[in-house]
Amino acid sequence: MTGFESLYPFLYSGKTDVDAVLAQVSRSTAEKTEEITRLRADVLELYRDRFLECADAMAQRFAAGGRLFTFGNGGSSTDAQAVAELFQDPGPGAQPLPAAALTTDVAVLTALANDVSFDVVFARSLAANGRSGDIALGLSTSGGSENVLRGFTEATRRGMLTIGLAGYDGGKMVEAGTIDYLFVMPSASVHRIQEAQTTSYHVLWELTQLALADSPLSRR
Amino acid sequence: MIGALSGALVDQAFARRTEPTRALGRDAEAVGRACYDMAQRFHRGGRLLCFGNGSAAADAAHIVVEFVHPVIMGKRALPAISLSNDAATMSGIARLGGVEDSFAAQLRLLAAADDIALGISADGQCPNVARALETARDAGLLTVALVGGDGGQIAKMPKLDHVLVARSDDPRVVKEIHVTTYHVLWELVHVFFEQPGVLAPQVLG
Question: pTM higher than 0.80 for the full model?
Answer without folding.
Answer: yes
